[in-house]
Write a structure and sequence with these properties.
Number of helices: 4
Strand order of the largest sheet: 1-2
Oligomer: single chain
Mean pLDDT: 87
Helix content: 40-55%
Number of strands: 2
Structural class: alpha+beta
Radius of gyration: 17 Å
Length: 107
């Protein structure tokens, strides 16, 4: 959230339920999905097809990651951080600071 430029009309939020219902509630017609690998793409293209069937006006755009981060996943970062190792090569400085704060305070 901290990395987003205020010039863009982008909001980062969470939801419960189906993504298509959340998109309808927001009157969104485009989903942006990040992909790291071929296996991510296979999963995401199937999901996009289901979403398109449920909500025909909803388009999905795929953004590939940079090659140096293609092997990074949130579960890997969590596992590394859980053991107190440095994750700064894998996350933004604001995320790294939040992880450090969490490891220090436990909250």
């Amino acid at each position: 959230k901290n990395k987003l430029n205020s010039n863009f009309k982008i909001e980062v939020t969470s939801f419960d339920g189906l993504l298509v219902d959340f998109a309808k509630d927001l009157k969104a017609d485009i989903l942006i999905r990040g992909i790291r690998s071929v296996s991510d793409f296979e999963y995401e293209i199937n999901l996009a097809g289901i979403n398109k069937t449920l909500c025909p006006n909803l388009e999905t755009v795929f953004l590939p990651t940079s090659p140096d981060l293609a092997v990074v996943s949130s579960s890997m970062v969590k596992e590394i951080a859980k053991h107190g190792a440095d994750v700064s090569k894998f996350v933004s400085s604001s995320v790294n600071n939040a992880i450090i704060e969490y490891n220090v305070s436990g909250t």
